[in-house]
Amino acid sequence: MAKAPTMKEVAKAAGVSVMTVSRAFRADASISTATREKIQRAADELGYVFDATASGLRVKKSGFVAMTIPSISNSNFADTVGGLSERLAASGRQVLLGYTNYDIDEEERLIRQLLGRRPEAIVVTGGQHTEAARKLLQGSGIPVVETWDLPTDPIGSVIGFSNAKAMEAMVQHLVDAGHRRIAYLGGDGNADTRGADRRRGFADAMAHHGLAADLLIDAGLPPISMREGAHAMGALLDSGRTVDAVCCVSDLAAFGALTECQRRGLKVPDDISIVGFGAYELGDICVPTITTIDPAAREIGARAADLLIKCLDEGQSETSAAPITPKLLIRQSSDAAKGGQKK
Amino acid sequence: MAKAPTMKEVAKAAGVSVMTVSRAFRADASISTATREKIQRAADELGYVFDATASGLRVKKSGFVAMTIPSISNSNFADTVGGLSERLAASGRQVLLGYTNYDIDEEERLIRQLLGRRPEAIVVTGGQHTEAARKLLQGSGIPVVETWDLPTDPIGSVIGFSNAKAMEAMVQHLVDAGHRRIAYLGGDGNADTRGADRRRGFADAMAHHGLAADLLIDAGLPPISMREGAHAMGALLDSGRTVDAVCCVSDLAAFGALTECQRRGLKVPDDISIVGFGAYELGDICVPTITTIDPAAREIGARAADLLIKCLDEGQSETSAAPITPKLLIRQSSDAAKGGQKK
DNA sequence: AGTGGAAATGATAACGATAACTTTTTACGG
DNA sequence: CCGTAAAAAGTTATCGTTATCATTTCCACT
């Protein structure tokens, strides 16, 4: 195939200067309708496609907003990307996505790569970064938004919530329902910082209620899938330890745990309560439905977009928007009325 | 914040020419170690980040591969993107993603936008496009890969499979298991072309077996979620029509249908068989596990990457790789041994 | 008709990087 | 020490677009 035609060739075909062609493609410019139509025809004829790269270089506006997420396969993050993407599209901007695989070193590499595309802003997931990554973000000269977390030392704006606090609310709910022997089922280590925060919130809340947080089940390396949730639940049950309720790092893990109970003939919530995190559609459809926390994943993205549009188009300085307040959704899997057992 | 520093400033700081700085950042160039280190220091000092945009303009290699998918929230497509992304990363290329929302007009807009970023290749989902979109792709001068489908008139390469044929295999399985009154549960209309193909394959297969394909349940506009699957199943059951088995457009819809049966006290597969499509993790974990077809979503992406790397780096012309052959995974939800009923 | 001024169009240089070429420096055998 | 080839560094022009300024065209109104 021949290489893509440029404005120069369109200009020649239309019998005008390159500058006039350039103007024909912008809304504001002063150009006669006749000329614009003539140029449009020539462009269509040649199959001309505007080069956003060259334009971006000249006007120093790439039209990109970069975003890093741990994994594309997690529908929570996919929702955030969706919210961001949809709302930015209205202002003609495009999201440039990168995946960290829950690894902050990988995140650093990724941030460097993304900044090389000269995005107009960057949205990252989480508030924990390598020292070099922080420096890159701070020195980038563009708005930075950290999401899905509440960093103690934010780089720019924040649109997130405390995963620990959210989990504390969940423990409160379980305790209110009469549970005492509560397990936490989540990933190993601290690679998934949101997971680690939730575990910490769990432990703190248990301590606060004077309960032992000795049932911390490691389900493997993040992200924890349904299968790993099922395995970990199996291991917990095999251990023979007494358990009232299981707090899972996500609805996916919770669903895995739930199915393991079903396979073993345990009734949820009659024999044991199971709760998740993330408000995945799954948890609202399965039988029984799973109590969870809705972090407003899509809204996080939408809010980030709104904030950025304010910064970029209206020249406002970065302001932290109203905080995200996750909502506890009490459903069948922990419904006390159905018989949460006391120990 | 100050604007990002350029090579010029790094050059001044290091006391060399811009060209030398440029060379310092490329592996091949002839440059002394001392100079390279000096430049590296200066660059770190200033927080210099390489501008891939400007470089791309000059060398005519953007480092982008564009891809369009119907929705980011569908884990099948997310897997394909993951496979593509991971394998392209090794060759230093980045995936630029766009979402069509199952709308070919939106796809056309998107393709135009993506081509404006001067990607080195473009991967699209499906084989149905607007006339203008076809022209854009054909005239783009870059390798084009159509995936997840087997277009009759391909634009470039194809890495896909026949959704109709795959569904025929599924019907064969159900018929073998003794089912006669088989329903199809999927989306309205033809917006989701893969869904429409599956429905067509279903109808053809039913006709081939001399069975009536009169149970075509419309579950709403694509994409069909779990909830819509559940609703549609409810409507089917409420209609009082006799049904042996239900063929769903995806595992998500199938799971929704399955839960609806559970809520109504119907046993799967004893009272009714349910099968899905897509080999989502969900279907392998839920109780009972769901019979499905594995389209090798991740492999589609990986194969596309391999093909493109051959085209771009080794100058080979576009060759269609070995075809994708979806695998029927027979699981509990249609297990004849457990008692698929004959009518 | 002639004139003033706005609208339309054109010419030039620049955005940040690099290919291609030229010049300077280094290294080494004789 | 010199000559020479190779390595290292510098110069210039360019990728496709647009800001800026200069020029031409057009029209309304005296």
From TrEMBL, chains A, B:
Pfam (any one): LacI
- Which domain of life, per UniProt? Bacteria
Any keyword Transcription? yes
Start and end of every HTH lacI-type domain? 5-59
Q: Which UniProt keywords apply?
A: DNA-binding, Transcription, Transcription regulation
Residue ranges annotated as transmembrane are none
In terms of SUPFAM superfamilies, this protein maps to:
lambda repressor-like DNA-binding domains, Periplasmic binding protein-like I
One function term, GO molecular function aspect: transcription cis-regulatory region binding
Q: This protein is called what?
A: HTH-type transcriptional regulator GntR
Q: Give the organism the record lists.
A: Pontivivens insulae
